[in-house]
Amino acid sequence: MSPTAYDTWLVGLREDNESLPSIEEQQAFLDFLNEKTTAEEAAQAYTSLVTNMEYPDPESLWLLIWQAAEDWPETHERLVELLKAISHLPPIKNAGKVGEGSVLEYWSGLPEFEFGLREYWDGKATRVIYNADPSIHSCFINLTSFNARLFRDGVFQLETWAILTLSEGLEKPYESQSHLLDTFVPAAAQYILQTGPAVYKCEKEAIFAGPLLEKAREKGSVERWGFWKERFASMHDRKDLKESTQAIGKQAADRMETIEKESH
To answer: What's the predicted TM-score (pTM) here?
Structure first.
C-alpha cells in the first residue's frame, strides 16, 4: 500500500524531533489518522506504554497531537474524538504506583495537557512575532482553531484563554504590522466563530489584563466585546491586509452582532 500524506509527514517529523513518542505509539496514532482504528481502539493503543509506566509521563503523546493540529487542520475533529476517548479510559490499577490495591484515575482529566498546550501555544505566538515564515503563521492559526474546538466541544473550559487570544489579536499595537494582523486576527476569530456565545457570557473574573481592563472591570466582558466587534469590522476595509483576513474580520463581526441579538 502506498504511504499516505500522514505517513510522509510523520517520517519528516522523526528526522528533526527527538521528543516524539515511541515507534509503537507513533504507529497507533498514525493508524488512527489513516482511519484504520476507532477513537476507542486508538486511545488504548496510543496510551498503553504510558499507562504501564511506574511514573506515567504523557508529554510526548500530547506533543504529537499538537503537531498534527498545527499541520493538519482537517484532523481537528478526529483529534478531539481521540482525546475524549483517552479521557474515558479505565482507571490504572497498579499496586506499585500509589499503594497496595490502589486505583488511579489517571487519564480522566487528560493530565498535563492543558498546561502543556498553553506553554506550547505561547511559544508559537512568540515565534509568529519574530519570524515571518508563512508556514509558522498558518500553523499558529491552525493551532488556535484547535484550541477553540477543544473549548467548543467541552474538552476544556478555556474562557480565559479565549479572552487572552482575542486581546492578543485585537488590542495589541500591530497597526503598522499587517503581517501580524494577518495572523492574529484570523486566530482570534476562531473563538468567535466556534465559541462566540460562551465568550459573550464570560464572567468578569476571566478577563486578562489589557488596554481595556479598567472599562471591563465595570461592565464585564461585554465592554470588550463591543470593542472587539469594531476591530473585527474595521479589518474589512484594510487594503494592506490579505483578502482572507478582511473576510474573516467581517465574518466575525457579523457573528458577534447575531450573538448579541440572540442573547437579548
So the answer is: 0.89
Residue 20 Cα distances to 92, 122, 133, 205, angstroms: 23, 20, 24, 37
Task: Identify the DSSP state of 203.
Answer: -
- Rounded CA-CA distance 262/144 in Å is 26
Grid coordinates given for 63? 506533543
Range 170-174 contact pairs with CB under 8 angstroms and sequence separation of 24 or more: 170/227, 170/228, 170/231, 170/232, 171/210, 171/211, 171/212, 171/227, 171/231
Locate 117 and state its grid cell. Answer: 498546550
Question: How far from 251 is each of 49, 164, 243, 260, 261, CA to CA, in Å?
Answer: 44, 20, 12, 14, 16
Q: What is the pLDDT of residues 224-261, one digit of tens each?
A: 888 899 999 999 999 999 999 999 999 999 999 999 99
